[in-house]
Specification:
Radius of gyration: 13 Å
Number of helices: 0
Order of helices and strands: EEEEEEEEEEE
Distance between the termini: 40 Å
Strand content: over 45%
């Protein structure tokens, strides 16, 4: 049974940092595209970043330079380092996994291309 579990969310003041982690089990995550999405209240779920099994990463344009995605294939984990957080970053953050090729296509930030999802972790940034 595939399971993704996020951790590391919390509350932080603007300008602060948080590191999210996602632990995958039930399959060999190293062969899959993995990604982070977020959903703010009243908004659509949006792609934050994805990382291919070889470490090639893609980011939403608005987040480049502040967020860094990484993965450890041996441990079946993926992280998201978030720096210079702003109130607009407040959302539930989800990790997800998709077929390997998704990371290399225009569907990389398309939520429906991702098959398995974690339960989400809340990130709240106060001003």
């Amino acid at each position: 049974q595939v399971q993704l579990v996020e951790s590391g969310g919390g509350s932080v003041q603007a300008g602060g940092s948080l590191r999210l982690s996602c632990a995958a089990s039930g399959y060999t995550s190293s062969t899959y595209c993995m990604g982070w999405f977020r959903q703010a209240p009243g908004k659509e779920r949006e792609g934050v970043a994805t990382i291919a099994n070889n470490g090639w990463a893609r980011y939403a344009d608005s987040l480049k330079g502040r967020f860094t995605i990484s993965r450890d294939n041996a441990k079946n984990t993926m992280d998201l380092q978030m720096n210079s957080l702003q109130p607009e970053d407040t959302a539930v953050y989800y990790c997800a996994t998709a077929a390997r090729e998704v990371c290399y296509t225009g569907s990389w930030s398309y939520r429906y291309a991702f098959v398995y999802w974690g339960q989400g972790t809340q990130v709240t940034v106060s001003s």
